[in-house]
């Protein structure tokens, strides 16, 4: 079975994501929100499709400005559903808008989206899935797992022999902290 570490290097889209983003700890809420949006939109599609549309997603969702997206109404929803540059799935668009409002609430309660993640870390994958299903829309096991791996909360983004893994470990991902569980 091929691993992302085998497929991504030198690829024009996968390579930069694999080498500089995937699995590294993320601090900014707008980047965490972007990753959640991209993972939601990947459901049923290839990750390459999402990466190719990433700039269009950034433009469509105003650089993933959480406050602005949370305030979207019918005009913005119609604009998004008419935007051929992104994935025009009503359930996904509605989930992104709804989830922006959820992130705003989590920011108010925990200081940040990251603060909410930290408050619930560590936990095994199955418990994360239950928490995300209670908290967000359109977040099944695969979306939650990939979101958490991509942001450094769960291990598995890279093989141990991948050169990027050494850089990730040096960056101190949540899953590698002494208080972390190894159950994924």
TrEMBL record:
GO terms for biological process: base-excision repair. Keywords: Glycosidase, Hydrolase, Metal-binding, Zinc. InterPro entries: Adenine_glyco, DNA-3mA_glycosylase, DNA_glycosylase. Zn(2+) binds at residues 5, 18. This is DNA-3-methyladenine glycosylase I. GO terms for molecular function: DNA-3-methyladenine glycosylase activity; metal ion binding. The keyword Hydrolase applies. The keyword Metal-binding applies. Its EC number is 3.2.2.20. It is an enzyme of class 3 (hydrolase). It comes from Halomonas organivorans.
């Amino acid at each position: 079975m091929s691993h992302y570490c085998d497929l991504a290097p030198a690829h024009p889209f996968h390579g930069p994501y694999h080498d500089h983003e995937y699995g590294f700890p993320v601090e900014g809420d707008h980047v965490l929100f972007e990753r959640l949006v991209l993972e939601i939109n990947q459901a049923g599609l290839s990750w390459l499709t999402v990466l190719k549309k990433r700039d269009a997603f950034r433009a469509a969702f105003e650089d993933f400005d959480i406050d602005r997206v949370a305030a979207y109404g019918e005009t913005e929803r119609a604009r998004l559903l008419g935007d051929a540059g992104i994935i025009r799935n009503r359930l996904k668009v509605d989930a992104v808008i709804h989830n922006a409002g959820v992130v705003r609430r989590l920011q108010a309660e925990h200081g940040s989206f990251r603060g909410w993640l930290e408050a619930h870390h560590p936990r095994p994958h199955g418990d994360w899935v239950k928490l995300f299903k209670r908290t967000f829309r359109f977040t099944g096991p695969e979306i939650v797992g990939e979101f958490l791996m991509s942001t450094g909360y769960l291990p598995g983004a890279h093989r141990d022999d991948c050169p990027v893994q050494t850089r990730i470990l040096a960056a101190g991902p949540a899953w590698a902290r002494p208080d972390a569980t190894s159950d994924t």
